[in-house]
What does this fold into?
Amino acid sequence: MAGAKEIRTKIASIKSTQKITKAMEMVAASKMRRAQERRRAALPYAQKIRNVIGHLRLANPDYRHPYLTDRAVKNVGLIVMSTDRGLCGALNVNVFKQTLAEVRDWQEKGVESQLCVIGSKAQQFFRRTKLPIAGSVTHLGDRPHVSALIGTVKVMLDAYVEGRIDRLYVVHAEFVNTMSQKPVVRQLLPAEPVKSAELQDLWDYIYEPSAAELLEGFMTRYVEAQVYQGAVENVACEMAARMVAMKSATDNAGKLIEELQLIYNKARQAAITKEISEIVGGAAAV
Amino acid sequence: MASTINVDIVSAEGEIYSGVAAMVFVPAVQGELGIAPRHAPLLTTLKAGEVRVQTPDGVEHAFYVGGGALEIQPQRVTVLADTALRARDLDEAAALAAKQRAEEAIRDRSDEITLAEAQAELLRAVAQIKMLERIRKLRQ
It folds into this structure.
């Protein structure tokens, strides 16, 4: 019975791995539900404020906030969202690939990129590339909070105001459904105009109180909401991706155990047959 | 068609109200605003208070907002309410004091306020403290 013991220990070890992946799958599934709820809840606000800011772009005010004015692009800033932990399939890699593609596109046009990384996976990955990293934040947890994000994002906003970057993008995974998450690149600054049939051609808002004061508040809310939305979206994606990855790991472990069990049974049977034939052979000789 | 206006009230925690209205009242920083359909485009911030929505069939809905921002387009009003996360000005000390007062009143029955009243006040105070605790936890 050569190898029977080895096979047995192997089966036992795979079984314990399977237990772990199964538990992780269930944890991810329950966390996903909550993350999705948070994502859904944050969505209308982010969309509405994007619309409002988009309308602002189309207005014809006397005062123009720097966040709303296009200028020649010499440098771009990218905020890259990632997870803190691994074991979630190709989620992070897809986001990083998209980021690198974006960086390369700009490079061909002679534009340099600066990064702001969110999540330790992005930090690890982009440290190896030669790209300048302006800011980073990790360990946001499963419930990212605006105040934790805004500190780092402020670095990029300051860079924008001071003219070190001329455009700001955010790259994160977008939740399509449980099985698929795709990376998206969204322009944050300058805010993109939103076309709407309800708008007339030449108009401006009445600002109460003054435009400068008001826009500051609006723009802060806008950036906060967009980045927060990206972070919440990314957590929902992380949980979904992890759940799927862990489910397939559990399934694979099950298949492996089945195969090994078969090999083990065959080996055992072969040993028994061999023993019987030896006994029979011995008896015949006597 | 021209006598109604679309209203969206959203906060970072979710959509609060979406529908058509004949008239909307909001607590703007510079005083309450009444918004009729085809109002001129306007941007302003809101202070804590009540947003009231009058639907075309005369029903009035009221929502409490703890501040926020407002956009008016001729056909659409968007209220971006700040969430409980910004409810920094909720007076925790006052809530605690109220609780203490209520507890004292229960102990001292001879006081002019009746037991039922005191218990009701205690409940309110406890609810307020609980909400403050929840806000603090959320902020962490």
Residues 84-91 of chain B have pLDDT under 50 and may be disordered. Residues 5 and 137 of chain B are 38 Å apart (CA to CA).
